[in-house]
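Before a colleague's protein record goes any further, I have to sign it off. I want your independent view on whether this chain really folds as the tokens say. The record follows directly below this note.
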Amino acid sequence: MQPVMSVAEISEFLDREFPQIHAGGRVYAIDAISPGEAVVRLSANDMHLRPGGTVSGPSMMALADLAAYVVILAHIGPVALAVTTNLNINFLRKPEPGDLVATCKLLKLGKRLAVTECGIGGEGEEDYVAHATATYSVPPR
């Protein structure tokens, strides 16, 4: 699986088609695209924290969903209407405030469905704080 879009091309596409992801500031960044994989970062700020000083579950779910979308777009091209049909997430341990990095891999890229797996961890940490799988419906080309 070779990518057909670069980090810059996907970032430009997201800025144009989904500017709402930047409401409240630019907290998401695509760190890397490689064959079958994308790395997306959330620079979590106060709006992403929950009581107890940890990054909230909904923030990690949004990161996993965006990372899945990015890895799929990187491999099928700019298809705005690829949509999430399922997202499952397991919260493994409490993430500390700060950057979270989602490494998302394509498990399957078919004509109609794409399946991904994302590990989310703190910057520079080995252990994941969450693990997610996502399935996307890919519109006919």
In short: The chain has a mean pLDDT of 94.
